[in-house]
Request: fold
Amino acid sequence: MKTNNGRDIKCALCGKIIIDQDPKSSLSIYTEVFDGTSLEFDTNECLNMYKRFRSVYGDEFKDLIEPQFVSDPFWDKAIPTGAEIKEIDIEMGIDKSDTIKVIQDPVEIQKIGLEIGRIVEDEILMLFSSANAYYRQEKLGSIQSLKELVVGRQAKARILTPKSKQIEESVNMLTRYPNIEVRYIEPGLQTQVSGLQTQVTILIVDRKTSIVVELKDDTKKTSYEAMGLGIFTNRISGVLPYVSMFESLWKQAELYEQVSKVYEKLKIHDRLQEEFINTAAHELRTPIQPILGLAEILRSKKNNITSTNVYDEYLSVIIRNARRLKELTDNILDIARIESKSITLNRKLVNLKSVIKDAVEDAVENQADPKLIKIQFDSNIRSGDNIILVSIDKGRIKQVISNLLSNALNFTKVGTISITIEKLKNRKSYVAIVSIKDSGSGIDPQIMPLLFTKFVTKSEKGTGLGLYICKKIIDAHGGEIWGKNNLDHGATFSFSLPIGDK
Reply:
């Protein structure tokens, strides 16, 4: 369309000749005044895009539309038709096969990058060798638009970028979509990327087309200022080396991530092991001191102690602490057997109810103050069967029950500890479920995720090995063990065992 003086009216953003879309209207265009200058736009989208670019780049944007800047297609949510893609290819000069093109104009580089990204069918690969390069593209809107593009086309996108707090926040938004993956270039890998002689940004589309952009000055705020030369190619021989390099860096980034996770686990393990050594040393000294002290008293005053009550009291303290010492050493030996996978089970077919009764009797006998805490066993099996036969190592299962009772006593100052047994059908077979419920302080929320791991405890005494050993014993019997807080107060620990001779 021409004005009265014969001048063509062009869109101030995309440079297209504006066509009269409504015959009844003298001119179907969008006009707005910027800094005293009236500008015409072909569509409302061009007008909005112009405003967006001005808000990002300010006065610098004037230099970016000489020649006229083509509207960013990543913001255009409409998927182009084949004819439109063909037209774009011809306009961009990328319709020819086996093309290699060196580009100096940063506007043209960005324009080609956006256009080849628009025609993606399967996959986009992006590599940013610097955090600033990522920031600039995010500021331009390309990262957000990438999400809209791959989601709209059901394509996949993989991004390699250095790590920073700002990038992590952006990535957390991106990776909510299953077809977008991001991995970080760690410092060691960053050296390899920098070893490409210069820092670059690489875009690879469908493993058929690529554009590699040199970062001339990575300190600049805008992509157009930071860009150096760009190389576009759709030659397979030119694209595949970049694909290979990307895949190599991708795998190395994955390896760095795995090594980092292992390293963090090792640090946690070392810390827990150090805590365990300190705790074990304290736990060993605690029972040894009264054993030695009272034994010395009994020996030195053997002719002066006439009261049998005093004599029995001293012996009870010695025996109780000796048992505690034996339990600790047994736990340490069990850990060694578990770690070396040399723990063995002496299975026999026994009545589980009798094993529980033995463990309860031992716990009652060794209780410090039976008046404060009542231990009760519901011997009436809920399933109605008086006998539940299980093939178990009796000593090991008794160890599990005793350990769970000991934990319940440690965390219950006053109240009741109840034990129940139940027979349930699990798929095609039956299982026995034993539950120990206390009215104590419950399971600490910080402990809950690590409940059955080594060296984890909130008890004032103990090494944090008991529940770990319990789990390994129950696992070896083909059962399961779990714990939960009660609705009112206290906690309940339960474990299951297969019923029968298997």
Notes: The radius of gyration is 37 Å. The CA atoms of residues 161 and 286 lie 54 Å apart. The first helix runs from residue 44 to 57. The domain at 263-339 is CATH 1.10.287.130 (Helix Hairpins).
